[in-house]
Amino acid sequence: MPPSPSQHAADALLINGQSLRSIRHHIHQNPELCYEEHQTADFIAAALDALAIPYERGLGGTGIVATLTGSGSRDAGQAPVIGFRAELDALPLTEQNDFAHRSLVQGKKHGCGHDGHMTMLLGLAAWLSQNRDFAGTVRFIFQPAEEGGAGARRMIEDGLLEAFPMDRIFSLHNWPDLPAGTVGVMPGPIMAGGQMIEVTVRGQGGHGATPYACTDQLNIAVQILNQMHVFMARRLPPFSPAVLTITRFTGGEAMNVIPDQVHFDGTIRILDDVAANIIRTELPSLIEGIARSWGVEADVTLTDFYPVTSSNASAAELVETAARNIGLKVETSATGLRPAMTSEDFSFLLQKVPGCYFWLGQGGEHGLHHPSYDFNDDVLPTGVMLYAEIARLALDQGKIDG
Ligand SMILES: [Zn+2]
Ligand SMILES: [Zn+2]
């Protein structure tokens, strides 16, 4: 296996005569939303054609899986298959930047850096296509609809893992909270699992002057909401972190009319199954019970959204080693790195294939999903180097268990 590229070599990679920066800018200018990433997928496919890497399109709708097998040899059945993933989709967000590569599409932008992720994965593909003397296979997965559309799950449902089996799988996300080039990695949970909760309180409305002659749905809904927070604080063990936020509360049309029904909904984030199970089994009946005690009904819908994103310990260790090997600073739980309470659909893949999801610091003053956010091009070569070193270590390891 060849050594990983130097910073200079990674920065000098060209695909179809284009630098990684210009590729990133092109993708940034042409954002597409969940499951509509047709032109983006065409662009990725054209880049793979230029690299002469075979691929299959259409998994999960717009998804692409490219496969590169090295020219090196190993004992039969011992050559590992390593997967890397990037996301195709942008956000329904109006860009507040005026640089030359700003989004050309009103109301859509790459506000999560997936433009950078695709570019780094193409950079890895370019590097490995020029350095094919490795023993094993590398897959490049470009998935649709990470932003709420569970594109990774859709690809799995479309047979991704049967058609393209993998021994190990990796994905990075740029991370504005870490300095540019610093890697954040830890075994176990790094991003939260999510549940959505919707509550409708139904009773008999009436005149605002006579609440004693009807039932006051707004007041009951407020009590339920407050008791939900007490539930989170008292029923969940403190070592199972969880967040409940009600983000919408609607009901009533006039200052003197008590409405028949009030609706509210929001999000729950958890870092382990303990909290998720307690919430799933106990919270709906608590809500229904409070409503019943006031003589009204509550309809509760609790939906699992994304699972916890949890990295395999040996894969996380491999990422940490790779980062140190190429001279990057590493933050781990030992240095105070903590999981994020946001969610990520790479979790579906990590449920099926051991692997690691990690952060590549990119600095910057704007966080992910901010209208002024932009991916930091300076970390493009860093991401390629890191991916290449992870591939090198994982391919050198060969097939391993767990
Ligand atoms: Zn995002
Ligand atoms: Zn993202």
Automatic annotation (TrEMBL):
<dbReference type="Pfam" id="PF01546">
    <property type="entry name" value="Peptidase_M20"/>
</dbReference>
<keyword id="KW-0378">Hydrolase</keyword>
<dbReference type="InterPro" id="IPR011650">
    <property type="entry name" value="Peptidase_M20_dimer"/>
</dbReference>
<dbReference type="InterPro" id="IPR036264">
    <property type="entry name" value="Bact_exopeptidase_dim_dom"/>
</dbReference>
<dbReference type="Pfam" id="PF07687">
    <property type="entry name" value="M20_dimer"/>
</dbReference>
<protein>
    <submittedName>
        <fullName>Amidohydrolase</fullName>
    </submittedName>
</protein>
<dbReference type="InterPro" id="IPR002933">
    <property type="entry name" value="Peptidase_M20"/>
</dbReference>
<dbReference type="InterPro" id="IPR017439">
    <property type="entry name" value="Amidohydrolase"/>
</dbReference>
<feature type="domain" description="Peptidase M20 dimerisation">
    <location>
        <begin position="197"/>
        <end position="288"/>
    </location>
</feature>
